[in-house]
Amino acid sequence: MKEIKVLGTGCxxxxxxARLIEEVAHERGVEIQVEKVExxxxxxxxxxxxxxxxxxxxxxxxxxxxxxxxxxxxxxxAA
Length: 79
Hints:
Layout (H helix, E strand, L loop, with lengths): L1 E6 L4 H17 L3 E6 L2 H6 L7 E4 L2 E5 L5 H9 L2
């Protein structure tokens, strides 16, 4: 199971990013656990200065803007 955190204050791009990750995981049959991190202090502590940010299995993989489907698919298949 992949542990994914979507970092952002709850804006439309953050919600879209979380939904996109869930959709791609479902399409590919990948089991994930998504956590939404909305506290500014926690976002900054993770080293993300632009939102939405995405952390997969403890590693920041994206910051700023909605990622594309291919990027999300790559995160989900990476070991």
